[in-house]
Amino acid sequence: MEIERVEKLHDMGYGLKEAKITLSQDVKFNVAKIKVEGGTGEIMNLPRWVGKILEDNNLGELDSPDMITELKQALSKEKMVGEYQVSTLDPHFYIKLKQYLKTLQREDFDHIESMLLELFRMRRGKLVKLADSTKLNSDLYHKLTVEESVFFKTIYENSKNFEKQIRGYKIE
Fold first, then answer.
1. Cβ-contact 84, 130 below 8 angstroms
2. Closest CA to 93 of 114, 63, 72
3. What are the tens digits of pLDDT across the range 120-171?
4. Do 43 and 13 meet the contact criterion of CB atoms below 8 Å apart?
5. What's the angle, vertex CA 51, arms to CA 147 and CA 71, rounded to 5?
6. What's the pTM value of the predicted model, to 2 decimals?
7. Domains of the chain in sequence order
């Protein structure tokens, strides 16, 4: 499926972005042409994937966005913009949220997942309505996540093809 490929590509890109990591002990290594040398308590900007490895090995703490707050804000904004508009989301919003969900305990996960599903259903409904009536323009594109852009294009193309089949001729 195209969304999975696009999401995987953007997930790799997100991993390459710099992130702050606070070292919890002295480290010194050189891997994949990335030299890291720092002392306990030092804050460094490193590719997110390097920070994740350090964090997984208890060598540092990766500064991660507060996804609960971002999710609550996104849900609130989505409710405020109305039925025929979508609020702006970071292109990697769902990618970051999925990574965050992997770190949660079951009871926290259930609560966050219910908010995520509410946001997803609202946006999906709006995108279906919009894709049935308009092409993806630059303004709308910049409000969508990478997954939503693929979804929108798919709905738009399917809607036009369906209309073409019903009418019996090509629609431009």
1. yes
2. 72
3. 999 999 999 999 888 889 899 999 999 999 999 999 999 888 888 888 866 5
4. no
5. 40
6. 0.74
7. 16-62 (no CATH), 67-167 (1.20.58.2050)
